[in-house]
Specification:
The complex is a heterodimer of chains A (424) and B (290).
Chain A (H helix, E strand, L loop, with lengths): L28 E7 L9 H11 L3 E7 L4 H13 L7 E5 L3 H6 L20 H7 E2 L2 E2 L2 E7 L1 E5 H6 L8 H15 L5 E4 L6 H12 L16 H16 L12 H9 L3 E6 L2 H6 L10 E4 L14 E8 L6 H11 L2 H10 L13 H6 L3 H9 L10 H17 L4 H19 L1
Helix pairs in contact in A: 7-15, 8-15, 8-16, 15-16
Chain B lengths: L2 H36 L1 E4 L4 E4 L3 H8 L1 H34 L4 H13 L2 H11 L6 H5 L14 H27 L2 H9 L4 H29 L3 H6 L11 H11 L3 H32 L1
Antiparallel strand pairs in B: 1-2
Helix pairs in contact in B: 1-12, 3-7, 3-9, 4-7, 7-9, 9-12, 11-12
The chains are: A alpha/beta (424), B mainly alpha (290).
Chain lengths: 424, 290
């Protein structure tokens, strides 16, 4: 869900609409690389694959598109990998699926193929998401991090600096709204629809108040009151008009548009939006700043959630050596640089964020680097999707006010415990 | 049976065989295997695969989420089908009376029906947008939070469904209306019947069987409703729009609880079969009465 905002598949039908070429060569080895459609000025993947073929004589790579939404991609993988007839060697994975697929036995353990320091160039949160049981199951490819967009022009006008706490954010919204007297100007936009993106928003709130969903040895909501405070806070944002009521049905795009039309002061979103805010027809062009997410009263610091895509290798591939080589090539600095140049994506390699050539085209890269360094992955566990599915209706119920924060946390806690018991 | 008849019979069966085998392969086999799956604990990511008997069904009988999904499904079906039949019938009657622009009106109706439901859902996502959406503008600039308010979300989904499938009912009724002989109406008018009486005594009785068919199709479709709510609300807020098939989908493909998900699928199947059976009985009676 998160990734598709940047990487979108345009309605391709599974295998039939395979992108890329269909080389009929008599190469000894043919690899299949499944990936989401890469959006941006020019898709660099075909060129990279040709380059890989040139470097590895006898190896051919066919790239095939995945369906358009993250949910459908997951479904596609599950059906085909579980059926044992995957027809794929290298897979592009949403970062939250890596431990799940590893546990299911669908991914090749990459550890023996890697140099000891090979992952060091990637963001720590991306590396953490690639590991399970002390082994590496995937290579980081794209990085995503939750952050706060703010209207630089408005904050400057009132002599304000980006808020460090949510209390400050609220005060700033009140101040600016009463000064602007514009009924069409909203305060703080975020994603509260019942979907994965909302879970990310609420988790970021939990972390900003030092609350966790899973504690050590799988304790569930070790700090329930802190979690309840966050849910009560989010509900209050809506009730007090700091956030419009419709955030409870909003995803990334639904919140990006009004912000881009100059109708909001703050927006929590991902780095992809920055490029769009800079477009010539954008009302807020040159008026947007990036800041870390604020923290709550009892929290140590505000934390953005990491997201993004990894590259995995199918365990039953007939060509493990070649497939791993392809994944390593695509995750190399050369390839990631090419991806940044041709596609609207943030790479997983830290060095690229301070590369003079790239920064010229992406002035916000150094700022995003800082935020991504501090990013935190969602709970890295094979049952993350189960966890999220249980959390979604409970958190949603608290946001729309049909359950109290206490009821929602208690409900989620009960179900997650039940879940953990049933899978042990 | 003569030798000749027996040979004919054999040839007949031979010709039928491919169709029967195909039908068996594409419907019977999957149905049986889903039922078999529903009797097991099967969670591939944890390597869980063991026989469960009727455990999943026992769990569902007390599962608040399942009961909620069943309630949402039935409520959605009742409301959307009733509205679709009512509005569709009205549209057909208006269409019949209309002189000019009938072809344009028919094309517009068809367009709404021909759009893939995911496209319809995306369309309505913007129509319902609380500040920029057309629906709220038409309603006088109210900031109704259509998809984010638990009291409105079901209504929002129903409205989108009615918009999408009402044309199906309208076209069926319209086609039937065209076959009603004008002489019937003339005769009625000569006998002094008013508009309402004509509708009650002539039009409606003649439309009954077609309405019954539309009712069956729409109910069976609505009971399996999935894509509209999946795209529009994701089942939210707070599961107020989560239907049985959305719950089944989440269990099967998102959390990979293949046994539990299959059990929900079987429950939906049983519900649909039950309703289909009732309708078939009604259609049969209608057929013999006519």
């Amino acid at each position: 869900m998160l990734l598709i905002r940047i990487v979108l598949v345009l309605g391709c039908v599974l295998a039939a609409a395979a992108c890329g070429d269909r080389s009929t060569g008599s190469a000894a080895v043919t690899l299949v690389f499944k990936h989401a459609k890469i959006l941006g000025p020019s898709d660099p993947v075909p060129r990279l694959l040709r380059e890989f073929e040139a470097r590895n004589p006898g190896v051919r790579v066919r790239s095939e598109s995945l369906p358009w939404s993250s949910d459908e991609q997951h479904q596609f993988y599950v059906v085909n990998l579980e059926g044992g007839n995957a027809g794929v060697d290298v897979l592009m994975l949403d970062v939250i699926w890596v431990p799940e697929f590893a546990q299911a036995g669908w991914l090749l353990d990459l550890t023996p193929f890697l140099e000891p320091s090979e992952l060091d160039g990637h963001f720590p949160a991306a590396i953490e998401a690639a590991r399970a049981h002390g082994r590496v199951w995937a290579l980081p490819w794209f990085m995503n991090v939750g952050l706060l967009y703010y209207r630089k022009d408005l904050l400057d006008k009132y002599g304000l600096r980006p808020p460090e706490t949510y209390a400050e954010l609220i005060a700033q919204v009140r101040r600016i709204k009463s000064g602007e007297r514009d009924p069409r100007l909203d305060g703080f936009l975020w994603q509260g629809k019942q979907y994965e993106g909302m879970v990310v928003n609420v988790l970021e709130g939990f972390w900003a108040n030092d609350a966790r969903v899973l504690g050590p040895s799988d304790t569930v909501f070790p700090e329930p009151e802190r979690a309840e405070e966050v849910l009560a806070f989010l509900r209050a944002l809506i009730e007090e008009g700091i956030s419009p009521a419709w955030v409870t049905a909003a995803d990334e795009e639904l919140t990006r548009r009004p912000f881009q039309d100059g109708r909001a002061i703050f927006l929590r979103s991902w780095p992809y939006a920055m490029d769009l805010f800079g477009l010539p027809d954008s009302v807020v062009r040159g008026k947007v700043g990036i800041a870390p997410l604020p923290r709550h009263a009892r929290g140590t610091r505000g934390v953005g959630s990491s997201g993004g895509a990894h590259l995995g290798v199918y365990r039953q591939t007939r060509h493990p050596e070649a497939a791993v080589a392809l994944a390593r090539f695509l995750a190399s600095e050369v390839a990631e640089r090419a991806m940044v140049e041709g596609a609207a994506l943030s790479p997983s390699r830290m060095a690229l964020y301070h590369d003079a050539d790239l920064v010229r085209g992406h002035p916000s890269f150094p700022a995003i680097h800082t935020l991504a360094m501090a990013a935190q992955p969602r709970p890295v566990t094979p049952y993350y999707l189960m966890l999220s599915t249980v959390l979604q209706p409970e958190l949603s119920a608290a946001l729309v006010g049909i359950k109290t924060p206490r009821q929602a946390v208690a409900g989620a806690r009960y179900q997650i415990r039940h879940l953990l018991q049933s899978v042990r | 049976m003569t030798k000749r008849q027996r040979a004919d019979r054999r040839t007949g069966l031979l010709f039928l065989a491919p169709a029967l085998l195909t039908l068996g392969a594409v419907t019977l086999y999957p149905a049986v295997s889903v039922f078999w799956l529903s009797l097991q604990y099967r969670i591939p990511i944890f390597g869980i695969a063991r026989f469960a008997g009727l455990d999943h069904y026992a769990f569902l009988a007390a599962d608040p989420r399942f009961l909620n999904a069943a309630r949402v499904t039935l409520g959605f079906t009742a409301a959307s089908v009733a509205l679709e039949l009512g509005v569709g019938l009205l549209a057909a009657l208006l269409l019949r009376r209309q002189r000019a622009g009938r072809r344009a009106a028919l094309s517009l109706l068809l367009l709404a029906w021909a759009l893939p439901s995911v496209v319809t859902a995306k369309l309505f996502e913007w129509l319902y947008h609380p500040t920029a959406g057309l629906v709220n503008v038409v309603l006088g600039g109210h900031a109704f939070n259509w998809l984010g308010d638990p009291r409105l979300a079901v209504a929002g989904v129903i409205l989108a469904d009615v918009w999408r499938t009402m044309p199906f009912v309208a076209l069926l009724c319209y086609a039937r209306l065209l076959t009603i002989s004008p002489e019937l109406y003339e005769a009625a008018r000569v006998d002094g019947a008013g508009g309402l009486a004509i509708f009650r005594r002539i039009t409606f009785p003649l439309l009954r069987s077609v309405l019954l068919i539309a009712l069956s199709f729409r109910t069976l479709d609505a009971l399996r409703a999935f894509d509209l709510m999946f795209v529009l609300t994701g089942g939210g807020p707070a599961n107020t729009t989560e239907t049985l098939t959305v719950y089944a989908y989440r269990s099967l493909f998102q959390t990979l609880q293949l046994g539990l998900g299959s059990a929900i699928g079987v429950a939906v199947f049983a519900l649909v079969m039950l309703v289909a059976w009732v309708y078939l009985g009604m259609l049969h009676r209608e057929g013999t009465a006519a």
